[in-house]
From TrEMBL:
Organism: Podarcis lilfordi
Key words of the record: Calcium, Disulfide bond, Extracellular matrix, Hydrolase, Metal-binding, Metalloprotease, Protease, Repeat, Secreted, Signal, Zinc, Zymogen
Residues the record lists as binding Ca(2+) 3: D199, G200, D222, E225
Protein name: Metalloproteinase-20
Family (UniProt): Belongs to the peptidase M10A family.
A GO term from the CC aspect: extracellular matrix
Superkingdom in the source lineage: Eukaryota
Binding-site residues, Zn(2+) 2: C116, H242, H246, H252, M260
Segments carrying motif Cysteine switch: 114-121
PROSITE patterns, sorted: CYSTEINE_SWITCH (PS00546), HEMOPEXIN_2 (PS51642)
Length: 502
């Protein structure tokens, strides 16, 4: 069990004491950045010329997640200080990165990933001993809903998130519709009164407080996020189940397969079972569920077919693609459960098809795709797995994207593009990209590199990419950028939807 002990709290000098209308000191406190106008030297920055933005992001991250109570804030440290280096090393060790003590590409890549707002340094103490509930039946109540989902969907995601834990430990959860509950759940925006303001889309997704009176157990979600019940946006069940682990007394785990790993990774809600590391953690606090006792089950999908969601309006001004690839002489464009196929040289309107009609194993929500035409093989990526096809024929079972040589913290690909002349595939992950040598079947050294530094004119997250007639087309939200490799610059920008006849 890796770092999955119960959260422990200690009120130390310099700890921020916070009270709200419920008159309870917060069990989890986040340190605010107090960066001085000092510049850290090359001992910390792997690429000092990168500029202050990388340094600022690193300082904020380390102050928020790796500075125990009573210590100086990282931003107050002197240039190239050993203390700053130790913080970076601690973070790198936690995430299984190469421990350099520098803010290198891999380290910054992890820092940019959406994550839980609870710190990774689990040595806070506020209550004597391990914080845990002294009873096994707990009440919960949703007091403020999100506009992203119906109330029924929110209630279902919350119920399933709690049942994931009660299936492994002797805990029971009862929904309250009024008054004070043990676990108060709400969707908040920005500064919401507990001194831990949310930061807008794709940063801190949620946070929760350790067991106890008042704020203890309460769970807050950032309402600025796109909450969903599926794979697009942020799956509410996935985040809720993680936060409820904190509300029950668990710290973060350094095991990437654990639900309590700090950064977001989609978990399929139906039939979900806690990974072993999480089971060990919750049973260390509450024991195991007795044999013969009724175990709450995470529900499976209903037998009746659910209503078919409305097809996305691909001519809408905000329309974007999930993935784009060549397949033979055709271009394929993927969005949610649909895809469009058209001849590379034609721009007439085309009708969408169901992904399952041609790629039954993919189902929906393809993250990235590319084809190595010389081998006649295409690769499709979803989460930590990939599938191969020859034409439209699926080849075997899914495999782990780790086969390509990604570091273990890379659990999802945003986009991929095969460069025919170079025989290289570029993988885009957050703000960085990797280069894979298809001839040697090996990831190239000195990667990842910054997208911003290497591809002038591209702005925003890259959703999809494809090479056509020697140019790379980058799709970012509703825009498609035509990139000239020789000029090393963008030469045209059009609507993404124009590629399917809009």
């Amino acid at each position: 069990m890796q770092n999955l002990r119960a959260l422990q709290f200690e009120r130390l000098p310099g700890c921020i004491a916070i009270k709200n209308s419920r008159q309870q000191v917060a069990a989890v406190t986040f340190l605010q950045l107090q960066a001085r106008s000092k510049v850290l030297g090359s001992k910390v920055l792997a690429r000092p010329g990168k500029g202050p933005r990388q340094l600022q992001r690193g300082l904020e991250y380390l102050d928020k997640y790796y500075t125990p109570k009573g210590e100086h804030h990282v931003g107050e440290m002197t240039s190239g200080s050993n203390s700053m280096t130790r913080k970076v090393q601690q973070m790198q060790a936690f995430f299984g990165l190469r421990v350099t003590g520098k803010l290198d590409y891999s380290t910054m890549g992890v820092m940019k990933r959406p994550r839980c707002g609870v710190p990774d340094v689990a040595n806070y103490r506020l209550f004597p001993g391990e914080p845990k509930w002294k009873k096994n039946t707990l009440t919960y109540r949703v007091t403020k809903y999100t506009s992203s989902l119906s109330h029924a969907d929110v209630d279902k995601a919350v119920e399933m998130g709690l049942k994931a834990w009660s299936a492994a430990a002797p805990l029971n959860f009862v929904k309250a519709t009024s008054g004070e509950a043990d676990i108060m759940i709400s969707f908040q925006s920005g500064d919401h009164g507990d001194s831990y303001p949310f930061d807008g889309p794709r940063g801190t997704l949620a946070h929760a407080f350790a067991p106890g009176e008042g704020l203890g157990g309460d769970t807050h979600f950032d309402n600025a996020e796109k909450w969903t019940m599926g794979m697009n946006g942020f799956n509410l069940f996935t985040v809720a189940a993680h936060e409820f682990g904190h509300a029950l007394g668990l710290a973060h785990s350094a095991d990437p397969s654990a639900l309590m790993y700090p950064t977001y990774r989609y978990q399929h809600p139906y039939g979900f079972h806690l990974p072993k590391d999480d089971v060990k953690g919750i049973q260390a606090l509450y024991g195991s569920r007795l044999s013969g006792s009724k175990v709450p089950q995470v529900p499976h999908p209903p037998l009746s077919k659910p209503p078919t969601p409305a097809d996305p309006d691909h001519c809408d001004a905000t329309f974007s693609f999930d993935a784009v690839t060549m397949l033979g002489k055709e271009l394929l464009f993927f969005k949610d459960r649909l895809f469009w196929r058209r001849q590379a040289q034609l721009t007439s309107s085309v009708q969408p098809l169901s992904i399952t009609s041609s790629f039954p194993q993919l189902m929906s929500n393809v993250d990235a795709a590319y084809e190595v035409a010389d081998r006649g093989v295409a690769y499709f990526f979803k989460g930590p797995h990939y599938w191969t096809t020859r034409g439209f024929q699926m080849q075997g079972s899914p495999r782990a994207i780790a086969d390509f040589g990604f570091p273990r913290n890379v659990l999802q690909i945003d986009a991929a593009v095969y460069l025919r002349d170079e025989k290289k595939t570029l993988f885009f992950v957050g703000d960085d990209y990797y280069s894979y040598d298809e001839a040697k079947r090996k990831m190239e050294k000195d990667f990842p590199k910054s997208i911003e530094d290497e591809f002038s004119g591209i702005s925003g997250r890259i959703d999809a990419a494809v090479e056509v007639n020697g140019h790379i087309y980058f799709f970012s939200g509703p825009k498609a950028y035509k990139y000239d490799k020789e000029k090393e610059d963008v030469v045209n920008i059009v609507k993404s939807s124009s590629w399917v006849g809009c």
